[in-house]
Amino acid sequence: MKLTKEYFISEMDKIAESNGYKKFTSRVDDLGFIYQKRVESELVCSLNDKLHININPSYIEFNNDSIYAKFKMSIVAENKDIWYDLGVYGLDLSESDKIPMIEENLIIMFNTLNK
After folding, report:
1. DSSP-assigned letter for residue 45
2. CA-CA distance, 88 to 74, in Å (whole number)?
3. Stretch 52-61: mean pLDDT, rounded?
4. Which helix or strand (DSSP H or E) is residue 112 part of?
5. pTM exceeding 0.90
6. E strand map for the chain
7. How crowded is the C-beta side of 65, counted as CA atoms within 13 Å?
């Protein structure tokens, strides 16, 4: 069975909501939206005193009928005048159970790099 764009988005919506993410419109992302969640952290972005984790889904159909349907998780934040884009990419729907562990690891990386 071919993974349709509609099915992928529907499943991503369920996964994001069950992990506490909200959906936001985005003009720069493949599908026109991202999911975002504010997280607790020892250190935060110095511009807005918050730290967010983003989930960016991608769905691309190629001419040879192959499909790329994956998502990326990242922290994009500034601290001490240095911008960070820390992420994990190439995740598929079957790896959604790893989201809590990835969140924890991204927060640890951000805090470690900014001590």
Report:
1. B
2. 6
3. 95
4. helix 99-113
5. yes
6. 22-25, 33-38, 52-61, 67-79, 82-91
7. 2
Rounded distance between C-alpha atoms, residue 69 and residue 30, angstroms: 11
Please, how many CA atoms are within 13 Å of residue 23, restricted to the half-sphere of its CB?
13
Q: Residues near 2 by Cβ (< 8 Å), separated by ≥ 6?
A: 65, 67
Residue corresponding to tokens 């999911």: 35
Q: How many other CB atoms are found less than 10 A from the CB of residue 15? A: 19
User: In which residue are the tokens 């960070």 written?
Assistant: 84
Burial class (CB in 10 A: 0-12, 13-18, 19+), 105: middle
- Cβ atoms within 10 Å, residue 69: 19
Report the distance separating Cα 15 and Cα 11, nearest Å. 6
pLDDT above 80 (res 1): no
The closest alpha carbon to 93, from 14, 32, 28, 25, belongs to 14
Q: Tokens 């499909």 belong to which residue?
A: 67
Q: 43: Cβ–Cβ under 8 A, 6 or more apart, which residues?
A: 51, 79, 110, 111, 114, 115
